Amino acid sequence: MSGKRIMQRNWKLAVLVAGAATFGAGAMPLACSGSPPENGGGEQKPISSATGSLGFALTLPGGAVLSSVTYDLLTSSGTPAVLPNEPNPGTVNVSNSSAIAFQLGGVPAATGDSISLTASVGGGGTCQGTASGINVTAGHTTNVTVQMLCSLPGADAGNLFVSASTSNCGTWTSLSTTSSEVFVGESLVLTATATGLNPSALGYTWAMSSPIGAFGATAGGVGAPGQDEGVGPSDPMQFMCTAPGTTTITVVVDDGPQDAGTCPTNLSTATTTVKCDAAPGTQVAAAWVELTGPNGSNGLTGNVAIARAVTEATAADGGANPCPTITINGGAAVQMNLRAAATTSLALRSVNTPPAKPALFPVSSCEYPLPSGATSAMVAGQPLPLPKANPTTIVVIGDTGCRLQTGNGTQSCNDPDPNGTDTPYPFAAVAALAAAQNPDLVLHVGDYAYRDNPCPAGQGYNCGGSPWGFGWDTWQADLFAPGAPLLAAAPWIMTRGNHEQCNRAGQGWYRFLDTSPYDTTGVHTCDNPADDAIPTGGNWNNPFLVNINSSTQIIVFDTANAKPQSQSPSLPTGPGSVFFTTYASELTTAGSLVGASPLPFNLWSNHHPIFGYATGNPPAIPIPAFPPVMNSVFPGTYFPPPINLALHGHTHDYQALNFATGDLPGGGTFQPAATLVSGNAGDILDTALPYPLTGSAVSSVGNPAAVSVATVGGVQEFATSDNGAPFQNPNSSTDNGFGYMVLQFNAGPPATWTSTEYRTDNTVRDVCTIQTSGQISCSSWGVVQPDDAGVY
């Protein structure tokens, strides 16, 4: 039956009145004065010879249990009997017991006593009973029976276990915004502060009345609410406008679990208004020039300079071109070509480091090829840097984004001071310093965007309100905003890094930086994960050749997928695999390009150091699956034979490596290409490499996969950051730091390139001279310099 059925049960309680008796577990032995204790144990405790003891025993059937027993022993006159060692009335704790087993000692001898008992039974029942006419005789035992009436739950009754948790009401204290009106494609940061009983558990839920934007914390795309839980007394929330209009932003504060509307809205809820304006056609968020050249399949015969722009204007009036105009050599303004239209409807795709959210691009990507010999070009009134006929100064930077990556590091993206927090993001400062060098060309060796995941709350990092994911807002924050001075200083050569893989920032790479025409079929765009592993998909690109000056040319090679992370760790990389055959084909193309007309200096740029070091124990090459492919195409030399300098990033440090001359397998000798690594311009620095390097580390460079040290020679000299004589001083050490590199051409004779590695205070860390032989000589060879040393 439903509910609780009360059953009345009667049991008899035997009450023993004695001068000395022991009842049940835990009962104290009792004795009369001058008499030994019964049962052979316990210490004698003298009591009056005119007293006795009462013992009680009751066992309940059916598994019922007791919680407590209350007794009240009265004399014949109705007053409580005086007990020397116990209160009267009193309570005995028999919690969770199925029986009563206790005794009262020192009861005065008397006639006509009475006792009443009340027992609480688990499940809500009680037992009550009385007995009268009890005669207590000193030294004697009187048997008394107490009739107990018990009320217990019925057999079909159940128990109800109730637990409760508190949900404190958070109270907002302020709501501010960096701006209340911005253009579509631009972002602002809303900051709410609050108080609560548990400040560290304060959470914030953000919503908009009209879906004209996207919150930084949402995985649901445009218009989805943003939610940050357990972030503390302040929550900076990024908001990016994706469509024109006005919306009311609402933030609801909670202190712990969601309050489910139980807290007063005047305490928990605050609102503000944001307006998103349609951008005019002249609204340009970024403009720059990049260089490309022949790749064996595009039909080009020389350098091509491409003017690029990102505009916050979007297609309107039936899809009209939203791109700004460009004016070349003072002529008539012409409209740039639309490369990739604005979109906020790309499907959520798999990523390398969850959580993920759709990449939103509410901006238009535009381009226009510049004619050779152009003397001026302006986009929407903004002058563009044009290629020079004979560049001699090249800035080399890499790994410039700010790291927000679950399980792999967090950076204070809001701190641009190189000497600020423990994890500053100094790329803006580095870019300004590098621009002041008045370069003719900028070579970026890869990894532009690092804000994969949200800024972690409550961990002390200065990154609150940072955009995250792989859309326009993160590209703006990682490259176009901090890099603006350097983008305006000179044309760029773009090398793709592993952070531009398809399951990372590959979608933005193809929209903004890739030099090939945009693939309108969608295969070579990284939009569809199904295309990641196919040779024509987004994870591979043909190399291209750029002529720098009459003595120097450079091959730009894409190794974004050389350490496969897009498919799975089990992606085959051996001979015959898509990985192997695709890279072998691209290497063959690269060899044909540079071998057609070798120059005194034939440079190579790819992101991962082929024979450089990555932090490890011992340090080793970063992409062990790739050198075997190189060796299969170029036995013994790995790079195409004319290459005499390799430029890389990926490891977040500075490295300079020189190699001993090696023997070719078929006879003869060759000089392995010298290596420079410049991967310290923005992202979290790698741990300083050990110095001197161990023999096993040397072997790992000289012996990748199928190569022997005898074949490629091995490391002869090595420098990283501020270090001493390579392989000589066991007390020397390395110390990594942010910086950038400048290559300076010297016509000679003999012709050389000089590399200068700068720190963020613009002091010089190292100077190296590169010969046409492929050998490099650095001022740090054999010189121990402190970290704060000046020019040397």
Provide a brief overview of the structure.
This protein has 9 helices and 41 strands.
Description:
This protein is mainly β and 792 residues long. Helices cover 9% and strands 33% of the residues. The strands form 8 sheets. The protein has an 8-stranded antiparallel beta sheet, with no helix packed on it. Strands 28-27-26-38-39-40-41 form a 7-stranded mixed beta sheet, covered by helices on one side. A hairpin with a 2-residue loop joins strand 24 (377-379) and strand 25 (382-383). Helix 6 (578-596) packs across helix 7. The longest helix is centred in the C-terminal third of the chain and has 19 residues, at 578-596. The radius of gyration is 41 Å and the shape is elongated. It starts with 5 loop residues before the first strand and ends in a 14-residue tail after the last strand. 49% of the residues are buried. Residues 1-49, 695-713, 722-733 and 783-792 have low confidence and may be disordered.
Q: How many helices in DSSP terms?
A: 9
- Average pLDDT, all residues: 82
Shape: elongated
Largest pleated sheet? 8 strands, antiparallel
Helix fraction, binned, reads under 10%
Radius of gyration equals 41 Å
Low-pLDDT regions: 1-49, 695-713, 722-733, 783-792
Count of β-strands? 41
Strand order in the largest sheet: 4-3-6-7-8-1-2-5
Report the β-strand fraction as a percent range: 25-35%
**Intertermini distance:** 94 Å
Question: Which structural class best describes the helix and strand composition?
Answer: mainly beta
